[in-house]
Amino acid sequence: MLTRIESTLRRWRRRISRSEWLARMLKLQINERAPDAPALVLIQVDGLARPQLDRALADGKMPFLKKLIEREHYHLDHMYSGVPATTPAVQAEIFYGVKAAVPAFGFMSTDSQEMLRMYEAKAATQVEQKLKDTGHEPLLKHGSCYVSLFSGGAEFDDAHYCAATYGWGNSLKQAGPLALLVLLLANIWSLIRTGGLVVLELILSLVDFVRGIHRGQDFMRELMFIPTRIAITILLRELSTVGVKIDIARGLPVIYVNFLGYDEQSHRRGPSSAFAHWTLKGIDDAIARIWRAAHRSSRRHYDVWIYSDHGQEDSIPYETLHGKPLADAICDALNSLPKSPSGYRAAGREGLQLQRVRLFGGQWVQKLFPIRTHEQQEEGESPMALSAMGPLALLYNIHLNGTDPARIAQLIVEQTKVPMILYQEKNPAEGTKPRVLGWWRDGPFELPKDGHKVLGSDHPFTDEAAEDLVNLVRHPDSGDFVISGWCAGSKSITFAIESGSHGGAAPNETHAFALMPGDIHLPDHLSGNTNGHWRPKDIRDAALAFLKAQPAQKLKSPPAISVLDKRSPPPSTAQAASEEPSARVETAPTSSAHTRSSKKDGNHCPRRKLRVMTYNVHICEGVDGKLSPERIARVIARYSPDVVALQEVDVRRQRTGGVDQAQQIARLLSMDCHFQPAMHLEDERYGDAILSPWPLRLIRKDILPGPSPRSRQHGRAEPRGALWVEVDFHGTRVQVFNTHLGLSKGERMRQVEALLGADWIDNPECHRPRILVGDFNALPGSTEIRRLTSVLDDAQLKLPGHKPLGTFFSRLPKARIDYVFIDPELAVHGVHVPRSELTRLASDHLPLIVDLKVPAPDADR
C-alpha cells in the first residue's frame, strides 16, 4: 500500500514538473526511453584540488558532498589531471580520449605563427576540429554541455556557454515571449534566490575591492573584477543549473556542466583564500539541486559523477617578484648571444581573469572585455614569441645560430631566476626520439630519468608527471623552450597577473579528485592504472562503459557491466574512517575491495570477514514504479557482499517483462546463482535466490509447510520455500539458508519448525557454521522469532552497543522483519542498513548487511 502511494505521488509530481513543462514550451527534443536506461550527469568543479576539497569538507563548506560520502555511499578518490594541468587538456582527454591535446591554455600555432588562447572561439573551434578528426567517439554525443571550452560532441543547440558558442543555445535565443515569461515564472524562487545572492556577492566584492586597493592592486582591474565575479560565481552557475535540470527532464543520455566560481576566485585571491572557499557553498548547493533532479527523473536512470579537472597553487606573479615581465627579462638575458632578440610577441600576461565573462555572449560583453596581445617586433624574421598563461611559459622562435641550447637554457635560468626550463636535444642518435633535457638551479638534467630529483620524491604523481612533461616538450606547438614556474624546493611562480595558478606539474595543480558512486570504480584493464587514482581518460572509459550498458530485453541479458565488478581503488581517508570494525551506522561503509581472482582459484587470503546481505527486492520494482533488475544489481554492487540472499524474485513472468531476474542480477555482478521457485505458473516462476562470487553447492531447495486449510479455502494461500547452499569461503564450508515466510502467525510457526527440523538446519549433513537469512514477516518479540533465537543468534542483537535497525518500509524503516540468524561461534563485526537514495528507491525493503568473522578450517587453525 505504501509503495503504491509513493509511486502515485511521484507520477503526479512528474506531471507537474516545471522542468518538464519548460522543455516542452521551449520546443526542446524529448527523449522517450525505458526509464531504467542508463544516463549520466558529469559535474566538474573547476580548479578544486583534492587537498582544498578535504579542507572544505572539514570546514563544512560543502555539506551535500559530505552527505554523499556519508549517506549515499560515494567514494572520494584521488585523480591525476595530467600535464598540462589545464581545462582544455583535461576536457580533450575526457571528451575525446586524447592526452595533451594542447601544450597549454595559451600557445602559438607553429604553422600559422598565430597566438591562440583557449577562451577564444576561433582557438577552441580549431583545436576541437583536430580532436574530431582523430576518429575518437565524442563522449557528449546526443547530450548537452554547459560552460565548456569544447562541445564534446553535443549538438550546437545543446552547447551552452561554450567558447565556440557564446551564450545559451539557440533554443532559448529563438524562444518566443510567452516561453520566456513561463521560464521566468517557473523559476521565480530561483530568481529571488539569485537576486539575494547577487546582492550578497556585490557586498563581498566591494569589501574585496577595498582590500585589493589597500594591498596595491591595480584600480581598474579590481573594479572590473566586481561584475565578472558576480557573473561567473552566481549568474553562470544558476543559469547552468536550471539548464541541466531541464535537460534531465528531457531525458538526455549525458549532460556535462562545469562550475567556474572557485577557479575564478582562486586565480584572483589564491586557492586557499576565504573568498575562494566561500564560492564552494554555492557550488555545493547547485550540485545538490542537480543530484535531486537526476534521482527524480522519470525518463532515465541517472548517475551523477563529480570531479575536478585540476587544482591550483598559491603563486607569486613573476612581475611582482622581479619588477618586469618575463618577456623583457628573457630579452635581457639573451643579449649576449650572437643574435639577440630585437623584439617579441607575448600573450597571456593578463591571465584568464576578466575573459571568462565572454562566455555569456553578446556584442557588448565582447567589446567590454576585448582580447589584447602585447607585441614588440620589427619587420623581417619571425620575432621571439612568448605565451605565458600561468606557471608554464612557451618560448618560440629562438634562433640559435650555432649556440648550444643548453647554454641558452642556462642563461635564462641564471639571469631571469625562473625555477626550471626544458627543451629537446637538437641532434638525437639516428632512429631515436630526441631526449628531453633541462636546466635548473643545480645544473642540467634529463627527463624522465631525473623526474624524482626535479619534481621531488614527495610529489603524489612523480612518474606520471615526469612522463607527461616529456610529451609536453615534444608537442609540435610547445615551442623551442618550456619554462616552468615551479620545481622541487621552490615556491610557485606564475607568469600572469594572478594569485593562484595552474597548468604545470606542481603537486596541487595536478592533484584533482573524483567523487563517484559506490559501484563505479577504476577499471584497471582500461588504463593499466593500479596505483589507486584516476586520470581523465579513466573517467571517459568508465563513462562510456556505463552508458553502453543497456537494460535487459526479455530473456536476453547484457554482458556484465565492467564498472560494477572491478577492484576498488585504495579507500580515501574519509572512507577508511568509516571502515573501522566499530562502525555501526545506518549508512554502510564501502567494504574492502574483494580480490575476485583469489576467490576463484582458491589461493590463500587472510581475509576472514564474510559479508552477508539479505534483501527483499520486491520483484525489482522500486517505490518510484520503475522496474529495474539493474538498479538492484547496483545496490548489491555498492556493498560488495560475499553472499546475497534475495526474496521476491521473478523469473520469466509477464508482469515483469519476461526477464529472468535472478540470472540477470547474477550476470551483472559476475556471481554464481541458485534459485528456488516457490510458485510455478506454467513457465513463470517466483521465489528466492542466493548469489555469491564464491563457489556454491546446492544442498536442498523445497517448499515449506503452507497455510491452514481454512486460509487456502479463502484464497490466501501463497507457497513459501527455502533454499540451502554451501559456500566455500577460503576453505571453510559455510551453510547458508534463505527463506521468505508466510503472512499468518500459524503458517510462520509451522515453517519455522520445519526449518529447524531434520530436513534443514538440524540435518546431520548440516555442518557448522550455519547462517539463516530472509524476510520472516515477523517482529522481534513474536513467538516464531523467539523460537528461532533459541537455536541461533540474532546478528543485530549480538553486536555490542548496536541498536537494531528496521528494514521495512524503505522510506520509513521502523519494522524489523528481515533477519540474519547465525551460530553462536560466529562473531559479528558490523551491521549495516544503508538508507541512501538508491536503496530507498530500489525496493520497499532496505537491505540488511552483516559482517561476520568466519573461523578458519581445521587445517589452518
TrEMBL record:
One of its GO terms (molecular function) is endonuclease activity. Gene3D superfamilies: Alkaline Phosphatase, subunit A, Endonuclease/exonuclease/phosphatase. SUPFAM superfamilies: Alkaline phosphatase-like (SSF53649), DNase I-like (SSF56219). The keyword Nuclease applies. Keywords: Endonuclease, Hydrolase, Nuclease. InterPro entries: Alkaline_phosphatase_core_sf, Endo/exonu/phosph_ase_sf, Endo/exonuclease/phosphatase, GPI-anchor_lipid_remodeler, Phosphodiest/P_Trfase. Residues 613-845 form the Endonuclease/exonuclease/phosphatase domain. Residues 557-607 are annotated as: Disordered. It holds the Pfam family Phosphodiest. It comes from the Bacteria. This is Endonuclease/exonuclease/phosphatase family protein. The lineage of its organism: Bacteria, Pseudomonadati, Pseudomonadota, Gammaproteobacteria, Cellvibrionales.
